[in-house]
Structure formats: C-alpha cells, structure tokens
C-alpha cells in the first residue's frame, strides 16, 4: 500500500502545485484609477504604443532600466503621469518632488520625450499598463519555482531515480522477510514429528560452498564480471573527448540567465554570425558596450560592477577579452551555424540546452557524431518557401514520410568532413 | 576504333621500356615503405603501443581553448565569411589583375579579375603562389643600416643628408608600370639634382622596344592580339608560358583553339625554336632550329612573304628550315589576320619581324603599335653604361628600387664588386637578397598585398592595387620612402589619389564626384579610358637590319649552342623562394626543385648517357671563361646541337627554400652586342662528367601501365569529316552482341536527385601551364614534400598535368629512339580524381573511409582512414596520395612545407579545409568546401544554385577555360550544354551526345564524372 501511495503521490503533488500557482494568479489584483479604460481595444492600442516606445526600458511588473509600471495610476495622478511621459526632464526641472525622486532612483537616466503622443494615445497606453498582459505578472511573481513546475508534464528524472531506489529497497526487504519466514517455518517444523522424507527435506543444508565451486557458477560470474568491466571500459572510452557538462570559469562572470533569460535579449543580438556564417561569433566588446555604456551595475545598484568594469578595461586598453571556449568541435568536422539556424530554423536551445537559465554556460549536448547523426535522422527539412528544395520535395512527394535531412544526403561523410 | 598508330610515352624510359621503369610501373607501391629514422618494424610497434596508451591517457584531459573576439569588430569582417578585394599583381613588368580572397583579414587565395580587359580573369602559377610570399619569414622586418637593424627615422635622416652630397644619383629598377610610382620617382629625382632612373629587365625585351624605336621612333612594346590570328608563327617566343604577358596571350590564343562541330575552325600555329617550350608543345607544326639559324630563318620568311607581296627581297644566306615555306604560304593567304613574333632580343631581328607583319598587313590588327603596352621598358644599353660608370667610380649614389641586378643581370658580379665604389648605396628590396645584402641602407618595401598602387599596363588601361592586410612587419612602401627622401610629407595613398584626380578623373564624364570615381575604380580593380590610339608611322630600313642579321647568324654553326630560357613556374627567379613554385613540376620536363642542362637524345647517345627515372650525370658547361657544373636532362624535342638552361636558379640569398638550388644561368649570358643575348652561340662547350645526380622528375610516377587510348586525338581535317574522329569506342561482347561498357554493370547505379557535379576538360584548350596545380595546392592545403620525397615518388599534388609525348611507332634501337625523341608531339592531360560512379576505391576500403555522395562526389574522410592504401592500389587513375609523414609541424619539413610549419606561414592555410595527418590518404575533393558554401548561399537566399555560383579552384585559375565545372543535372549549365546532355534524368549515367567527349579508360566502366574532349591538331595529315 505504501508503495502505491508513494508512486501516485508524485504527479498529485505536482498538480496541486500547479493549481496553487493558478490560484495565486487570480488573487493578484492591482488597484487602478477608474478613469483608465479596461476595454479590449484600448489595451490592444496601448500595447502597440508600449512595444514601440517603452518596451526597451520598461516592464509591466518588474523593474528594468526603468521602474515597473503597473499600478502607476494608483500611485500618481493621471495628469502627472502624462506630463512625465511627454517630457520628464521638464517636470524634473520644475522641481516636482516625485519626479526628482524617481530620476535619482534610476541613476539619473534620462527618459526620452514622447511629445508626439496624443491624450488618447496616453490613455490607451495606461490602459495597457494597468490591464494588459497579466500572465506576465503571474510568471514574474511566481519566480523560479513556477518554471520548474511548468516543465513537469512527465515524471522528472530525479523522481524516477528515487522511485527506482525505493523499489530496490522494497524488494530487498521482501527478500529478508521471506528468509525470516523460511527460518521460522523450519524451526517450527523441526519441533513437529515428521516422516523420513520430510525430515530429510527439512534438514538438507543448502551447500553454498558447493554452489560457489561449481563450474557453471564460476563461468557465469566471470562472464558477468568481464562483461561489466568491458562495458564500463567501453563507456569510459566513448566519453574520451566528450565534454558534456563542461562549464569552465570565464574571465567575466557573464550570466546568460540574466541577459537571455530575464531580459530576453535575442541570441542574435550578440551572436551576430549565427545566421550568416560558420561561427556564431562571441560578441566583440563593442557590442557589449551598446548597452553597458548606460548600464554600469546589476540590479539597480550604484557604482560600477567589477565584472562590467572588465569590459571597460578591455575597451580602454584595446585588449580583447579571452573567453574560454565551451563547445569544442574537433578540427576534423565542419559545422556551420547558418545552415542550421538560418536555413534549417533550428532553435539555439536544441543543441545548447536551456541557455536562458544558465548562470554559467555549460556544454549541454554530447557533440558526438552519434548525436549529430541522430538529429539528422529525425529532423524534417524546412522546405516551404525555399526554392532550393523544390526538386527534392517533388521527387519525395510519393513517400509517406516527411523529407528528413538523411534523405538528402545528411548522413554523408563529406557534409561535415573535408 | 582507333585509327592512328601512335605510341604515347611520358618519359624516355617508358618509350624504351627500360627495366627499372617496368619494375616500378608494375609494383603496387613503387614508392616503397618508409622507416622511422632507421628503426625497425619491431621498434615501431613498441613505440606505437606506448604512444597509444599515452595518447588515451592524455586524451582524458582536453586542453583549454580560447575564443577571443575582436574588441571592436570591423563592420565588414565576419569570422568565417570571406571578403574579396580587387587588386593587381605586378612584379617588374609581369602583370595580372586579381581578386584577393581574405578570411578574418588574412589574404589566403588569389583569383583572376574577370573585369580586366587584359588578363580577363586568368592567372598563372606565379600569381597564384604569390600569396605565400606575403608570409615569408625571409622578408625583412625592419630597416637596416650597414647590416644592422635600425629605425626609420635614423635611416631617413642619414639617407637624406648623404644623398644631398652624393653627387650623381642613379635609381636602378625593373620595369615600372605604375604612373604614380613614376611620378614619385620623378619628384625624388628632381630633389636630388636630376637623379637618373635606369630600367632593366632580368628577362629583357629590349630587342622589341629598340626595334620599335628604329621603326616607329618610340621605344614601345606593341599590343599583341592572338585571338584575331588564324595563322600564328613564333620564332622562340614562349608566349603561352613566359613571354611578356603570357596570361593575356593564353586567353587570346585559346579563342582560336576552341572548336565545336558547328564551328570547326581553328588557328594554325607554327613554332620554330631550340628548347621545347610550353608554346612549342602546343604548336601544330614545330621545327627545332638552332639559335644561330633563327635570324636567317626569319630573313627567309621575310623573303618568302616579300616575294608573294611583290616587295623587294633582301640578300640572306640560304637556310634549310622545315615548314618555313608552308608557314609563309599560309601567312600570305591569311594576311591581315595572322601574326609573326620572335623571342629574340636582337633589335635587328625584331626590325625584320616588324617588316614581315607590315607586309602581311597585320599591323594595327594583331600587332598594334598605336596602343603601346608597358610590360617591358628595360634599356640594356643604359644599364651597361651604368655598370661601366659604377666600375669607374662615377656614380655617387645608387638606389636599387626592388630589383636584384647582382643576381639577375648579366654583369651582376661586376656590380657586386663595384657597389662599394658608390658613396651611398640604398635598396628598397623586401628581403636581404644578393643585392640588398651589399648596400649600406635597406629600406624594405611592403609586400604587394600590403600596398597601395596603380598600374598602367597598356595605353588607356589602368588598374589599382589595395592593401588586403595591415603590414606584417615594420616595413614602408618604397614609393613613400622616395617621397620622404624627396622631402614630401604626403603619404602615398593621398599622393596616389591626387594623381588620379588630376590625371584620370578628367578622362571620363560619367561620374562627377571624385570619391565615387575612385571607389568604383577600386571596386572594379580596373579602369579603362575611352579608347585612344596614338598615330604611328615610320619605316626602318629592312635591308640594313637584314644585312646585320645575315652577318651575325650562321646557317651551319658546328659548335654547341646554349639557349637560355625561363621556366613557367620559376620565371626570372625573383619568386624562387616559394616552395609551391619549386615543387610544381615543370610543364615540359616534369622536373621539380632544379634546373638542368637540357640535351637532345642524339647528344645523349653520342656521349653514352642514359637517363632513367631521373638518374643522370653532371656536365660542365663552359662559356668563354665562365663555367658551371650542372646535371643533364635528356629532353625530347631539343634541337640538335643545342643545350638549354633555365634562369631563376642558383640563388645564394633568396631564403631557405631556394638557396643552393640549381645554378645561376644569368652568369652565362652574353651582352657583347649591346643587348642581353639569351642565345649564346659562340664559345660554348659541354663536357659530360662522371658524377651522378638525381633529378626529381614526376613524369613516370603514376603511370597507366601502358594502357592505350588514355589520350584520344585527331587532326582538324579528320574532325571536319567525322566529329568523332580519334575516338576510341570500346565494345564489350554480351549475349550475342557488342555493347558499350556502360551497358554492363554489376552496380545498381546511383541516383543523384539534386545535383550531379562534374568536370569537362577540353584537351584542345589545355596548354599545360600548371596554374591549376598551384591553385589546387593553395585552396586545399596540399603539403609540399621536398625534393627527396619527390624522388621517393611521394608528391602530394591532387591535380597533376600528365604530359604525353607521341611518336608514330615505338622505338627499339638507339636510332629509332633518336627519331622518336627528335621532335615529338605533345599532349597535356590534367588528371585528378575522376569521381567515378562505380568507384573501385570505394569497394575496397575496409573502413568505409571513402564513400559516394548523393551528388556524384567520391568523398574521402580523413578521420576515418586507417591507411591501408587499398584504395590507392585500386585506383586506375593513380590520383590518390598517401601522407607518408606528418608534413605539418614537423621540423624535418619546415624548410620546404613553410605553409604548414611556422606561425606566419600557417596564415595562408584555407580554414575550411583540414590539414591532413600522417597515415591517411587524400585526393581531389572537387573542392567540396566550395560546393557546400555555394549551396548554403543559395539555400539562405531561398533559390536554386545558379551555374557559375560554384567553381573549383582549378577551373577558376585556368587561363584558357579548359576546365569547366558544373551541375550535370542542371539543363542550363555550361557543362550540360558542352556535353550535349539532352535527357533530364537523375541517373548517374548520363547519355552524352558530344562526339569529342570521352572517359579515360572507358573500357573498365568505372563511369567517371570527369569528361575529356579529344585533342584536335590543325595538321593536314596525321604525322608526328
């Protein structure tokens, strides 16, 4: 009974967790100024204005370059808000205490003027700010736990190991219990009067020594041991040169979790070569400087972060930053990012794993040839809209299966080795 | 069936079926096994066992590798994406408009610039190889004063003050074709009291310019146009290989040699020469003559033509020259569309040549003096005067502007002795060569790939060169040095622009903004002014010239004569420190790493010399009081009574590659007649010594074991009758009938659903120049192995040019051998992996390291190869190469394989191609890296691959478009149309309807994807 309970309880717990989050979602309520419309059209119109003008520096429910915006109409008057959006500097110059406070709080970063926005525009914008995209808020407030639960559709591997361990323990317990029962029964039978045959049966000693010495036993055990050793050795040999999980310390503690995860900077913004050439490119320091010209510290802290200071040093001294290469393909294989990303439309995460969650980048995949080939066997080609594949699609049209990479020579040697 | 009864042979040993040739030809691997420094097989296994264990242990700990980005990434440089810059190769007067491919800011490959009206996208071996000289460690890294490293400021201060008080200043240079350089030199000259600029050329064309001066009043070279000539007569001018502007001439020449069923016409080419040259090898009628006869032969031609034209003839001693009458007749019949050229440096001979072209009305059509070329401006007379002045102590200061007369001028030794007599001596040479090492100040120039410059190779034609890399060393552009010394502070780039603004901007009206004009010219690499021709007139007295010629040439010279020539790969020797050029086998002799005395078979027989597989003896050649000891090479086609010797060898200070290779033939030249004479007809004696020597010749390596029909050829007359003339069509008996070999196969046959790559090689267009072999070496990181390994038959070239001699019958006696080798026909056949559809190599590989792709390629996977060499053994074309050694990062090969051994040399490697390790087979991949990249570009743009998007390195380099690469599945591709493939099929076996197209060794039905087109000779009848 206990086993069954422990097995079923896992998904149960997960679902309760999930339910809890959705409940929380509903309970999170912001107060908003009643003047602000909550009509669908206003929110939609506001969203497009927000995306065009505000998104770079603001988020609805999180502090970004500028403050989180939701609830602003509750905190400030609508008039004040409009003035601030149109021309924050004028408001600050006029000595408005609230404006000066927020200016100082955010490192005296100047917010651009938006005098081109009409009153209606601004009202729509505020509608979006107050009522738009509430799911974001839920995820943001749920934080780290939420993402784990969200991914828990199947049984996570850690649970599987625990289940297996429990099973083994239970089986062992059963074995011991059975042994105990046998010994108790034997003792009991010995006290009973029995006929000769039964007597003999009970008294027979299982001669373990004889079993151990038997040829069959020795051969089986030897074979098992040899097989185990060979298997371990082969497995070990196969891992030579495989650096899965390799996470070297980098000269700058750059966090993909922060940049790609939290701030959702697209990968291509820094890895400029990924759609044009073989190398994805480690960004040059001048690309870092596009943002870090303004952002000198993390989490809105004052001063210059020592890690960010390293970029400034590199630029000042004109000395490149010597990153440690994480993904080392051997020279004998040719890999081209553009083929996979621009032509094949493969997501970065397919090979690089959950990069947006990595504080320190590690090698997610094995990068072995078997791993490449597996993917080439299973992946369908993105042929639509690409005239290059027309003839191949036409020739393949008779087949029931999708056109896979392997069907057009994706397993051939000279695709990667030359 | 085959009609001609010719015997084809690559070397004399094959013709005579010599024992050692047969032994090697029949062995699986004539190159033999290799020992590790004399250790035994047992030791090898021990070492191997240990290193395996060590390697597995070491492999557990992967080394930390860095990924270092730019600090500021330049906008137009993306790692892994090549950039191309139009530029210009110029070395003295040798000229080619080029496109430089750079990767991550490093020039790695040079291609021809198709926009150039002169070289039209062609290159040659020297141009292709010049990218490696950029990364030559022999280049000077700093300025030098009296042999000590110094600073520019110190050098400038000293040079300026010393020049000012030196007295007469002379600038010695090779031909300058750059107008801005000339202007800068003029400024320098003006600053130092009219310093004289004296031009000489190591391989001089003074005879032509002097003759032009005598005939037309100005010392110029004409513009030649071989494309308009239907009859070509050349007296010793190797215009396809080395003469003046060979890339340009090859482009023109081949227009008259391309032949189709629809247009079965072709030019006829007569060659009269002493050494078998590349041009002679391509001639329809070739007559070996002695240099001493050449002047008389030209007079005889003049008289024959004059007789027909009704002009006055000149008196000349009679001379018997085969085909001369025939040539005269055909020239006259094709007057106005024929051409006569001579390689002679004798002005009187060239006057007669001008007169012949005048009589033939070729002037202004094929030989155009109204549009002068500037490739050669050397003045032998002035240079001789300079040497006399220098010896007499009348030269105050001498500046050697990127020239090396101590090595490459006939009186080099005298210059070397007297340099110290000049108060000031300066050189701008980039290396510490024979001349630079003797001067006080060396102000090293940039390499041309680091420099700005302009060029004016021909009246009205301009081109630019631009830096493709920042200067690697502390060098300074020589033009800038001259400006600095002249007290002008403008940098040369601004100076150059200013010169274009003032002199060229006004020649066009299309663009009004100078920057736009400049940018466009720089982008194109070339700029042509609207055509202008200067009127020329004048007539030299042919009779005077003729009588001078008649005096100095003899019809019956009994003594040995020396004809000095230049090799296609080495040229005048200024690029000889380039291992790619040294290892490129000479198109004719197929020898590498050496120069040698070429002698005729008759001479060899008389002296009891038998040359087998490169093993020969040395000889002592004496000219006047100078003598050299040099190995002898028996050269079929060598004129009787002559010997040949190549320039460009015998360097003592070229650098570690070229130092000590061969002998310096410049020493033997004769300048007694006021011009540098490359034909030494008097006072030559040759004495065969007993010392033995081995010349690393590749001609009998990789032989076809006597299989016939590898070469298929016909005469033009036969071709007109039957387009499939000369074709051998093997038939196989099957079930009661004879069928084509391709109809019988064990294989199911491949299907190529998307692409079917192939090559079509026109043996009529291939002139054998070898540009493709060097281009392949550069593109595919092919190792250089050095002379000893070539002797061991281990050269690594992926593409070779098989040169076949042919003669009517096989020879069995010495007498017949002489006749066969006297004047053989020559055929060139580029040979690379044939990418067979039924590949014999693929079936024998035990580890599937060589496999077939779905695009028709035979793939070689180095990382899978274990080196059994079964594939090489089973390859009928002998195109697979085994890495006997680790050629990279190996000190034993550091001196020859510089591109893979030092840090600087490695910068030239193509990053898209693996450098192969020891113990694996490699071979032509049909430039699969280019195919993959071309396909990717098409895919990214969402379109089909267009014909021309992708091209192999060999086809790109070919100056005669003899190699055509393309997709045989694409009905619009050039290759499909050439082969006349009509059906649209994805089958590997295509029905080819072009009658000339054939497969080498069709009878074994390996079904190659490389097609050859029969060789057609414009001969009246088949004769050898």
UniProtKB/TrEMBL annotation, chain A:
From which source organism is this entry?
Answer: Cecembia rubra
Transmembrane parts of this sequence: 159-185, 216-234
Q: What is this protein called?
A: Quinol:cytochrome c oxidoreductase pentaheme cytochrome subunit
Residue ranges annotated for the Cytochrome c domain, each copy included: 41-133
Q: Which GO terms describe its molecular function?
A: electron transfer activity; heme binding; metal ion binding
Keyword Plastid (UniProt)? no
Specify the domain of life of the species encoding this protein: Bacteria
User: Where would one find the signal peptide in this protein?
Assistant: 1-31
Entry-linked PANTHER family: CYTOCHROME C7-LIKE DOMAIN-CONTAINING PROTEIN (PTHR39425:SF1), LIPOPROTEIN CYTOCHROME C (PTHR39425)
Show the InterPro entries listed in the entry: Cyt_c-like_dom, Cyt_c-like_dom_sf, Multihaem_cyt_sf
From TrEMBL, chain B:
State the PROSITE patterns in the record.
4FE4S_FER_2, TAT
- The protein's name is Quinol:cytochrome c oxidoreductase iron-sulfur protein
Q: Which Gene3D superfamilies match?
A: 3.30.70.20, 3.40.50.740, Formate dehydrogenase/DMSO reductase (3.30.2070.10)
Please state every residue range assigned to the domain named 4Fe-4S ferredoxin-type. Answer: 757-787, 824-855, 856-885
Look up the domain of life of the source. Bacteria
Among the Pfam families in the record, one is Fer4_11
UniProt source species? Cecembia rubra
Q: Which CDD domains match?
A: MopB_CT_PHLH, PsrB
**InterPro entries named in the record:** 4Fe4S_Fe-S-bd, TAT_signal, TAT_var_transloc_signal_dom
